[in-house]
Design goal:
Number of helices: 5
Strand content: under 5%
Radius of gyration: 16 Å
Shape: globular
Order of helices and strands: HHHHH
Distance between the termini: 54 Å
Helix content: 55-70%
Structural class: mainly alpha
Number of strands: 0
Length: 124
C-alpha cells in the first residue's frame, strides 16, 4: 500500500483533499480557499475583504514577486471590464490595513499619482 502525500493549502495551511488553484493549476488549496478564489474571479467588483484576501494570497504564494503578481491580477480584471476600485485606492486600503494610515487625503497626495500613473500605463 502506497502512502498518499498530504498537501496543505497555500493560503490557510489546512489539508487540501487534492484541491488546486484554478489560476495556475498547481498550487494546492483547500475547498474553502478554492471556492473563495473562484468567487473573487467571478465578482464584478472587488470589495475590500476580497482585495485583502487576494493580496495576502499572492504574498504567500510568491513572497519575492507577489506584488507584481497582484498588480497583474488587477490589470487582468480591469482588461475584462471588472469595476474594481482604482489602483491607488486599492493600495491605500492595503497600506491602511498593514500600517494603520488613517490620513487618506495625505496618503493620496503623496502616493496616489504614482499608482494612478501605473494604472494609466496599463493602456486598457
Amino acid at each position: 500500500m502506497s502512502k498518499q502525500k498530504l498537501e496543505y493549502c497555500r493560503r490557510c495551511q489546512e489539508s487540501t483533499n487534492g484541491g488546486i488553484s484554478r489560476r495556475d493549476n498547481k498550487s494546492p488549496l483547500c475547498t474553502k480557499c478554492e471556492e473563495l478564489e473562484a468567487f473573487i474571479d467571478m465578482a464584478e467588483t472587488l470589495t475590500y475583504p476580497l482585495i485583502k484576501w487576494e493580496f495576502k494570497f499572492q504574498q504567500l504564494l510568491a513572497p519575492q514577486n507577489g506584488m507584481d503578481i497582484f498588480e497583474s491580477f488587477l490589470k487582468f480584471r480591469k482588461s475584462i471590464g471588472k469595476k474594481d476600485p482604482s489602483f491607488a485606492e486599492i493600495h491605500y486600503l492595503i497600506w491602511d490595513d498593514m500600517f494603520g494610515c488613517k490620513d487618506k487625503k495625505g496618503w493620496m497626495r503623496q502616493f496616489g499619482k504614482i499608482y494612478a500613473d501605473k494604472e494609466k500605463a496599463w493602456k486598457i
